Amino acid sequence: MAARVPAAELNQHRSSPFAASHCRRPRDAAPHAPLRVASRTPRRTDESNRIICRAAEVQGAGGGARGRRESLRRGAVSARLPVPDHIPRPPYVGADAIPDVCPDRQVHDGESIMRMLDACELAARVLQYAGTLVKPAVTTDEIDRAVHQMIVDAGAYPSPLGYGGFPKSVCTSVNECTCHGIPDSRELLDGDIINIDVTVYLNGYHGDTSRTYLCGDVDEPTKQLVKVTEECMMRGISACRHGTSFKEIGQRMSEHASKYGYGIDPFVGHGIGRIFHCEPIIWSTYDYEPGFMVAGQTFTMEPTLSMGSTQCVLWDDGWTAVAVDGSLSAQFEHTVLVTRDGVEILTGCP
């Protein structure tokens, strides 16, 4: 689940050319909005623009398997699911306000690394199971119920549930939904793509992972978007090791995305451990994040790529961020551990 960085904190970094929240929302929207910042993606070349135009042409003008794709519409949101009383809750549960991003950078010892690994392995198993449910006519609410049950059956708490008032146990972002989609009664359609973002809280630690899945017969331009997004994540992960600048992550992701002309949606990764969202902020674009990686740090890597605009509008639920031009987005996420020799992916499939 992408972090929300307070706009005021971002604006304090005067050396950065990037403004705060790039999401527009209706006047009656909920007060807590996911933060986006102006895109840091390098200017696209003429060739990149041709790639984007061709992808949009195939996707929107009947060239794909689905023909013209309908705009995403919200469905009915069911009641919040219960969690057994014996399962420990994260400290933010019960408060409507979104917690501030903690400025501390968590560095783990051997015992806490093992607890992180347990939480991350569970998150990976849950996500793997959720992916098997992605089929036409299945609702995102059904996916949420299945994810919720698997998490609580393992004695863990679904971290998104109650985070700043988020009403569900998993984020499900379909097609042009860039981030933080709320599961509802809408049925998945043949040709959709869906990002499922799973975070669990187990024995006092969070494990966080997501993946974009193909639903039924998906057209080739969309398959390429999904493939390149995963490649960007892996390139960012490959930059990690003790002593490396955090800037290297965004540089590697940006360079790869720009080869295909994709925009990088500026939601961010984050430190994670006992605290859900903390420093460091992990940008997927060229960035100004200070400092260097330290062995024992854990954080998420979660690039989101778009076929078109990286600006969004926010639905009045205060969470669902949707591309302003209706273009498709894909996202992948792993929680990683920095080591002396490199990096370990904690949310790799067990």
Could you characterize the architecture of this molecule?
With 350 residues, this protein is an alpha+beta fold. It contains six helices and 17 strands. Mean pLDDT is 84; it is low at 4-22 and 25-67.
Q: Could you give the topology of this structure?
A:
Blueprint: H1 7-11, E1 23-24, H2 46-60, E2 102-105, H3 110-132, H4 140-153, E3 157-158, E4 171-174, E5 177-179, E6 193-202, E7 205-214, H5 220-238, H6 247-259, E8 263-265, E9 269-271, E10 278-282, E11 298-301, E12 304-306, E13 312-314, E14 321-323, E15 329-331, E16 334-338, E17 343-345
Parallel strand pairs: 1-13, 2-10
Antiparallel strand pairs: 3-6, 4-6, 5-14, 6-7, 8-12, 9-10, 11-16, 12-15, 13-14, 16-17
Helix pairs in contact: 3-4, 5-6
